[in-house]
Description:
With 304 residues, chain A is mainly alpha-helical. Chain A has helices at 2-23, 25-52, 73-81, 84-115, 121-133, 140-149, 158-187, 191-200, 204-215, 217-233, 236-242, 252-261, 268-288, 290-300. The N and C termini of chain A lie far apart (68 Å).
Amino acid sequence: MENTISLNPKVKSKSLNQHFLVRNMGLIASYTFLIVMAIVIIYPILLTIMSAFNVSNSLYSTSFFPQNFSFTENFTHLFNDTAYLSWYTNTFLLSIVTMVLSTVIVVISGFVYSRYRYQSRKSALMSLLLIQIVPSGSGLIALYAMASSIGIYSSENATLYTYIFMTLIYTAAGTTMNTLLMKGYYDSIPRDLDESAKIDGATQLQIFTEILLPLVKPMIVVIAIFCFLGPIGDIIMPKFLISSMSSDAKTLAVGLMGLINDLKDSNYNVFAAGAVLAAIPPVLVFYKFQDYIVGGLTSGGVKG
Amino acid sequence: MSKISLRNINKKYPNSTSCSVRDFNLDIEEGEFIVLVGPSGCGKSTTLRMIAGLEDITEGEFILDGEVVNNVSSKDRDIAMVFQSYALYPHMSVRENVGYGLKLRNYPAETTKKQVDAISKDLFLTQYLERKPKELSGGQRQRVALGRAMVRTPNLYLMDEPLSNLDAKLRTTTRSEISRMHRAKGAITIYVTHDQVEAMTMADRIVLMSMGEVQQIGTPKELFTNPKNCFVATFMGMPSMNLIEGMYKAGKFSCHSFTIAVSNSDRKILDDAGYDGKSIFLGARSSAIRSGLKHEQAFPDSCFETTAINVEYLGDSVNVFFEAAPMNLFVGTLGTGERQVSIDEKVTLVIDNTKLHFFDPETEESIKFNVKAMNLV
Lengths: 304, 377
C-alpha cells in the first residue's frame, strides 16, 4: 500500500515532464525560429544606432558599443559638411507627393474595379497582374532614355523636372499592385450597403464618400504608407536619373550611399547617423498607424 | 397612397440562357400586404429587386401611380427596403443609421431627431441609439433595419427575407411587429420569404412562385383550400400535402395500398371532367387523415389499414408517418384526444373524403380548381 502511494507521484511527474516537451514541440520550434529572426532583424538596427554615436573612420575597427562616444559629432559633421538637409527635404517631398497622388488614384480605381461591371474589366485586371511580373529594374534604361528624350536634362530646371518625372514613375508603380489590394478590400464590403444607401436616397458620389470611404479607411492607410515608404527606400532609380546632378539634388538614399561609396574617404559613422535620422519619420508613421496596418493587411490582402 | 402594376415583367441576366422571372403580372391595391413566396432560386428576390430598381427590368412595365418607372433610379422611386443581411452602415451609430435616409432628403436636423426618437421608442431602441451596429444583438440589428425603413413614409415598403436570420421565437414576435407597422403606415408592403408560415400569417395576398413563374396568386385561404396545382398544394401547409397516384373508377379511388370512395360532389366533378377510368393524383392534407372509431363510422367507405413507422410529438397533436405504397411516407396529424399511435403499430386510418384534392397526373393542374374557375365564368 505504502509503496504504491509513494511511487505514484514520481511516475506521474516524470511522464508529465516528457509530455510537456513532446506536447510543446511545435511551440518551442516556433519560438526558436522567432528569436533567431528577431536577432537577425534587431542586430543591424542596434549596430547602426550605436555607430551613429561612435567617432571612428572604419567599419572594420568599430565595435558594437561605441569606443569614442560622442552624442553630436557625427550629426554635426552630417549637417555641416554634406547637403543632408536638402536630401532630407527632397526625399520627403517626393514621398509625400507620391503618396497623395497614388492614394487618390488607387482609392478611386479600386472602387471602380470593385463596383462597376463594364467591358474589358477582366482583361484590365489581368493586365494589372501581368505588369507586376516585370521587375521594375528592367525598365531603368528606358526611363533614362525617356527622361532625356523629353528634354528634362537639357532644361534649366533639370532638378525640378527630374523630381516631377520621378514622382510620376513612383505613382504609376504604386497604383498597380495597390489597386488590386484596394479592390479586394472594397469587395469585402457587402454590396447590400451600397444598395441600401441607394434606396435611402444617396447618389453614387454619396455612396462612395459617405458609406464606402469610411469603411475602407484601414486599407487607405496601409496603401498610403506603402506609397510613402517606396521612394524613401529606393536607390536604383534616383541613382540613375540624378547621378550627374549637384549634391543638393540628391535623395537621401543616393546621398548617404555617396558617404560610404568612396573607398578612400568613406565615413560609416556619419552614414549611420544619417540613416538613423532618416528612419525617424517612417517609424513614427508606423507607430501611429500600427492598428490600421495590421487590420488592413490581414483583412484586405487575402481577397485581392 | 399609391397603386402598383407589374405588366409582363421578364428578367433575363446576361450570360444566361433562360429567364429568371417570366411573365410576371400583378396589380397591387392601396395598403395591401403582398408576400412573394417560393423555394430558393424561384425569382422572388429578383422580382423584388426589380421593383426596388436594383435590377434592370428586361421586358415589361412597372407602373407606379399610373406612371411607368422602369428607368427611374431607386433613389427617386421613394421606397424603403429591409435587407436580409440588414445592411446597416457599420461606421454609423444606430441614430445615424435610422436617420440617414432623412438626412439625404434634407430634412431639418430637428425633424430628423424627433422622427428617429419616435420610431426608436416604438421599436424599443431608445437606449441603443448611440451604439454601433456591431454592438447590437441580431434581434436589435433587425429592429434597426426595420426602423430605418419605417422612419420615412415612402410609396412602398420592400422586405427581403427580413426574419430569416432570427431565432424561431424572435421571428414570431417580429412577425407581428411588422404586421402592426404595416397597418399603422397603411402603405403597400411587398415581402419576400421562403417560409410558407410567414406567408400565410402575414399576407393579404400571396404570390407563389416557382422556377421564375407565378404559380398562383390569392389570399392565404384560397391557396390553402383551393390550390391550382400540385406545386401549390404541396408548398402550402405544414406538413406538406400527401400526393398519391392511383386510378379513379366509378366513384372510387384506388392505389397500391388502399381503395376509398370519393364524395358525391367530387365524383360529379371528376366524371364531368372525363377522368373515369383514368390515372389521377389524390391530394390529402395530413389534417384529413384521421383515426378512431368515431371517424370510421363517419367515413365507412374510406378506411384502410397500415403501419405507423414514425411518430413526431408536437404537443397539441402528433404527426404520424405511415407506410403507403407507392410513396414511402404518408403523414397524418392526429389530435392528442384521438387514438394514440406508437411506432410499428397497425392502425386503421380514415380519410375524410370531403377534404380531398385531385390533380391531373400529366399537367399537375388541380381538377377541382379548373372546374371552379369554369363555373365562375
